[in-house]
Design goal:
Number of domains: 2
Structural class: alpha+beta
Shape: globular
Helix content: 25-40%
Number of strands: 17
Strand order of the largest sheet: 1-2-12-3-13-16-14-15
Distance between the termini: 40 Å
CATH class of the largest domain: Alpha Beta
Length: about 350
């Protein structure tokens, strides 16, 4: 899990993925035939082989912020989000401002609950209520921070019980699964491209560009899915459950998985006795939604790792579900030339 720790703790918000990109390129060394970076910042690795052209994609960007305003007297910083946040999860969290002169530690604050009026207490927390406190006066902040500086949430990767937890599990765990599956596959029965995509959190932009370039016949997006198997959530609303294995997505708001790929992954999981579950989501989407529309069209599917507390700094996944995802993807890469996409 050392690689997953490095992946999650690296920074890379949409459009500014440089630090995480360097970690991924280093991890790819010796495992692929070539690595390229396109103008949108996607890492495109190619493992040459015979058979269908297959693209495996996991997005490397994480949700974060850009500095948007500095309060002149107080030095409090206002930020604009890149990606979807529930503001409730942000209160009292530490952040890093990646300024030109170096990193600055800060924390996210809001008006103290002790002095909120009764009406204010009834209102949901909004981004406009929040600010970043760098512990410095306004003059100093103005000298150190520029508008547009990247701001990321700060959190360590930890293991406890049977799970691992941290920031940016979404979707560094998908990147990790792809890297480990490529290493584990005894042979690759396809012409394989692995793409660590950019800007997924703001509209699957990297996958759109990479899909056009690769023009794959089959596309597998690796991402997280909601595991709402927590108190107070009825079974029908849980989407997925931890400890039940890798999730095969049948549909989400951006794509409908190709029946031939669904059948192939189900058959492989049952043959190899790999635990799996199926999910149907009405909201959200993954890189599969972009890659299935590449040029002539691509048979696409999403493999997901059930994740609790998505889009927070304590995103949590079960080690056994990660292993199931790696095992299933590796088995697919070994048999991709046998997949029947007809009917």
């Amino acid at each position: 899990m050392e690689l997953l720790k490095r992946l999650t703790e690296a920074t890379g918000v949409p459009g500014y993925e440089g630090p995480i990109r360097r970690v991924i390129i280093e991890a790819l060394a010796g495992h692929v035939d070539s690595v390229d970076v396109d103008l949108l910042g996607n890492v495109i690795a190619h493992k040459e082989g015979k058979g269908p052209v297959v693209a495996v994609a996991g997005h490397m960007d994480e949700i974060g912020f850009l500095a948007s305003h500095i309060e002149e007297k107080s030095g409090f910083l206002r930020v604009q989000p890149l990606g979807g946040f529930d503001p409730v999860t942000l209160v009292a969290q530490r952040v890093i401002v990646h300024a030109q002169g170096g990193e600055l530690i800060g924390c996210i604050g809001r008006k103290p609950i002790h002095i909120l009026t009764d009406e204010e207490k009834k209102k949901p927390v909004e981004m406009s209520d929040l600010f970043v406190d760098l512990g410095l006066p306004g003059d100093d902040v103005a000298k150190l921070v520029a508008l547009g500086d990247v701001v990321t949430l700060r959190q360590d990767f930890v293991a406890y019980g049977d799970v691992v937890s941290g920031k940016a599990i979404d979707d560094r765990v998908g990147v990790y699964v792809a890297l480990e599956a490529m290493k584990r596959a005894k042979k690759v029965a396809c012409d394989l491209y692995f793409v660590a995509t950019t800007q997924e959190e703001v509209g699957v932009r990297g996958a759109t560009v990479a899909g056009y370039r690769i023009n794959p016949q089959m596309s597998i997006a690796l991402d997280v899915c909601i595991a709402a198997d927590t108190p107070g959530v009825p079974d029908r609303d849980q989407v997925s459950q931890m400890r039940k294995g890798v999730a095969l997505s049948l549909k989400d708001a951006r794509s409908i998985s190709h029946p031939g790929l669904v059948r192939a992954f189900r058959d492989l999981a049952e043959k190899k006795k790999i635990p799996y579950q199926v999910t149907l989501a009405t909201r959200g989407g993954t890189d599969a939604g972009a890659m299935q529309l590449a040029r002539d069209g691509s048979a696409a599917i999403t493999l997901s790792i059930p994740t609790r507390y998505v889009h927070s700094v304590v995103e949590t996944v079960h080690v056994a579900d990660i292993e199931a995802a790696i095992a299933l993807l590796a088995a697919f890469l070994e048999t991709a030339d046998k997949v029947d996409l007809s009917g």
